[in-house]
Amino acid sequence: MNEFELIQKHFAGWDIPxxxxxxxxGDDCALLRVPEGSHLAVSTDTFSEGVHFFKGTxxxxxxxxxxxxxxxxxxxxxxxxxxxxxxxSIPDSNADFLKDFAAGMRKLASRWxxxxxxxxxxxGPLSVTVTVLGAVSEETALRRDRxxxxxxxxxxxxxxxxxxxxxxxxxxxxxxxxxxxxxxRLDYPEPRLDLVPxxxxxxxxxxxxxxxxxxxxxxxxxxxxxxxxxxxxxNIPHPVFPEGLLETERLKMILAGxxxxxxxxxxxxxxxxxxxxxxxxxxxxxxxxxxxxIEDYSPDVSEIFFEDMPVIPAELTGFSHF
Amino acid sequence: MNEFELIQKHFAGWDIPxxxxxxxxGDDCALLRVPEGSHLAVSTDTFSEGVHFFKGTxxxxxxxxxxxxxxxxxxxxxxxxxxxxxxxSIPDSNADFLKDFAAGMRKLASRWxxxxxxxxxxxGPLSVTVTVLGAVSEETALRRDRxxxxxxxxxxxxxxxxxxxxxxxxxxxxxxxxxxxxxxRLDYPEPRLDLVPxxxxxxxxxxxxxxxxxxxxxxxxxxxxxxxxxxxxxNIPHPVFPEGLLETERLKMILAGxxxxxxxxxxxxxxxxxxxxxxxxxxxxxxxxxxxxIEDYSPDVSEIFFEDMPVIPAELTGFSHF
Lengths: 322, 322
Prior knowledge:
Two copies of one chain form a homodimer. Chain A is an alpha+beta fold. Chain A has two domains: 3-136, CATH 3.30.1330.10; 152-319, PurM-like C-terminal domain (Phosphoribosyl-aminoimidazole Synthetase, Chain A, domain 2), CATH 3.90.650.10. Helix content of chain A is 33%, strand content 23%. Chain A has nine helices and twelve strands. Chain A has helices at residues 3-12, 59-77, 95-111, 161-170, 180-187, 196-201, 214-225, 247-256, 269-281; strands at residues 21-23, 30-32, 39-48, 80-90, 116-123, 127-136, 152-155, 206-209, 227-231, 263-267, 289-296, 304-306. In chain A, the strands form three sheets. Chain A has a six-stranded mixed sheet, sandwiched between helices. In chain A, strand 4 (80-90), helix 3 (95-111) and strand 5 form a beta-alpha-beta unit. In chain A, helix 1 runs parallel beside helix 3, helix 4 packs across helix 5 and helix 4 packs across helix 8 (247-256). The first copy, chain A, is globular. The mean pLDDT of chain A is 90. Chains A and B meet through strand 2, strand 3, helix 2, strand 4 and strand 5 of A and strand 2, strand 3, helix 2, strand 4 and strand 5 of B. Strand 2 of chain A pairs antiparallel with strand 3 of chain B, so a sheet runs across the interface.
């Protein structure tokens, strides 16, 4: 049994219905149905040991995260998942590794009903490339170039936890009960596909997932939409960090740390008000955090301005054009 | 400029219209239109130095072939190309390498109008993963499990040239004027997307591309369709090999050599006759080589039988169930 047969064995037991799959793995191509009126959304990410994850990361976390960061791209596009392909490079054929790797991937694939429809396995340094496929209509696609002046800027959850995990692992600072959830954010980020129906209802048109850090990713929206942003630092959600961190380190984690894979998006002020009303009536709706507002572009002022932090620490200015 | 920006620079100048691309590289996902009534065909292949190509293969050949073997999967499925994504791992940022690599890929991408719609570049050992996307209707998809008793078996071109190239490179046998075209077959295989319209016209339902060797790949069809095959060795096309090869080496190249990426397919006897008539009227139609016939499966006789070679050399029996 070769590696891919081994993986298929671990993947084959999955209970993923996948009515959209008309021909699965085993022929020259898999065949998928794309719902009528929908566009195909496609994204590829590679995940390599030593570059994208620390040597020694558990195989389960690796399998989970390689798929998670790709599903996050579907969420950021407002797309419904159709399937994914995977190219796995592993140094040797290790049945235990493959079992745990597949189990990590399976967690997410089952939850979001996204079947594996193709793959390749080669011998080489540990690395995973996932290509994810989804469906979205042209009207509801969440693009970077649709932000409008007056739009409210939101994030979908606390920022900086995963960045703390990276920071601590570089320094060999061990996990404690207090920081376990921050390390967990790094290894098992939650792609926010759960938000897609709510964002459609709120007529959201502009979003991305925060993979490089809030400031850098907000910059992508501002440049694509030719706008600027005014933020309120005090409104940006973040986890409780352990004591003893320098204020600039903390700010860097919140504003420039990636890897949390929360969504950054904008809503018109009417739809922002609609959300507040909806949530009052339905307290079980997800919390969306309003952190600022889109304004007209002007060459004379900074691209991103903080109402409550007029002087930006020098350590942060590399992440955007202040 | 990072590697991917460099590649995009080389790829951006391409004249690939791609009306099917409604949103290209640069957002969380690319968005593609899949024609109504068509299924999405998807396939992934990884191409690694030392495993899939010899160290020292020219960057141009590498870029060409990494895309060629994937386009070949679309051809083998009878699909029209929509686009592809690429994940490239390179040891260092080398502008010359990237320029030549992109030029090799561009050759094919332009010819078949298949735009790059996503990608990722990481630092690591040389390796390319391509995921190719195409469109095909359920009725005209070329599957492995559709061969019928009485179908005629065809191949689309000479077999064994690329296998000679592999054989000679392992032995450091240099290229000569006589063998240049065989080495060329190895480095620059021609994906047979040109045959898709003709195969549709001939109501072909069963095909694959010969990547592992005729016998092994024919086995895939026979098992998926629960059939056996009777072949005529003398009808199997092959290039002129240099003198001095052992007969078993020659046979192994023709019957068990992969890498030529010709198509193996079946036609009903009516459609086989129709092809012969069509070609008589239109001599410019591609040559299709009839090499045998599909028969009922029987547990008592070999899966593949040669009319004109009743005793199979032992070196070949590993490639199929004789």
